[in-house]
Specification:
The protein is mostly helical. The chain has 9 helices and no strands.
């Protein structure tokens, strides 16, 4: 969630001039701290992807990008100087890397465990590609009966069969379509950035039954459509010739 808030704050900062900038900066920095404290690699990747989309869609100026990089560098220097060990501020991230690569045994976060779940799901799909194993929580376990598939497309096919996979592909297509529209027309950058970020997170998480992310994704798609329809209507009205007043 911190990644989504940061993306939204940057997007609003790009679209506003003076009002509320200090509050947005404060909220963004608080969430940067929260994101760092989690050490979540998936969330950091999500943030990078979402910010890239927002900066491209809203045509961020070189000055803004330079300021964003400078703020990141200053924050990093503060973290380094706040501890005797110059690399202590990276401890959360390095620990998560050790967990993911299997150097530290920490359960489902290991890549090896994720890949075993993927292999089990794919083998099951090949044997029953149409119906899936079932939508209930008792059917979500893979090779050990506990580990869940951390990929929304593969898990949809594994549990819900080909029909649910098609639904997930349709959602993906809608997000990609909104992304291309936002880049082309320089509109709805925040909604596009958040939507793409959520799907990026869904590729490596148990997104399938995390309702809070689904709600944000759906609201983002709805609001981006509504905003584009309103702008199109305004352009249409603006392009109509004015009728003269009869004397």
């Amino acid at each position: 969630m911190s990644s989504i808030v940061i993306i939204a704050c940057v997007g609003v900062l790009l679209s506003t001039r003076n009002r509320g900038k200090k509050i947005l900066l404060l909220v963004g920095l608080v969430n940067v701290g929260g994101l760092y404290s989690t050490g979540s690699l998936s969330s950091i990747i999500t943030l990078v992807v979402g910010l890239t989309v927002v900066l491209v869609c809203q045509r961020a100026t070189l000055k803004f990008v330079a300021g964003l990089i400078a703020a990141t560098c200053i924050s990093s220097v503060i973290f380094i100087l706040s501890d005797r060990n110059p690399f202590a501020f990276l401890s959360n991230l390095t620990y998560r890397l050790d967990v993911v690569t299997g150097k530290v045994d920490e359960g489902v976060a290991s890549l090896n465990i994720r890949f075993m779940a993927y292999e089990y799901a794919w083998a099951t799909i090949k044997s029953a590609p149409f119906l899936g194993v079932g939508m209930g929580p008792e059917s979500q376990g893979t090779y050990n009966g506990v580990s869940i598939v951390h990929n929304y497309l593969l898990r949809a096919w594994f549990q819900g069969g080909i029909l649910l996979l098609l639904v997930m592909l349709l959602v993906t297509l809608l997000v990609v379509r909104r992304l291309l529209y936002a880049i082309r027309h320089r509109q709805s950058g925040i909604a596009a950035g958040i939507s793409v970020a959520i799907l990026t997170f869904a590729l490596t998480s148990a997104f399938y039954n995390q309702q809070q992310y689904w709600l944000i994704l759906l609201f983002g798609l709805v609001f981006s459509h509504a905003g584009d329809d309103r702008r199109s209507a305004d352009r249409t009205l603006g392009s109509q010739p004015r009728k003269g007043v009869a004397a």
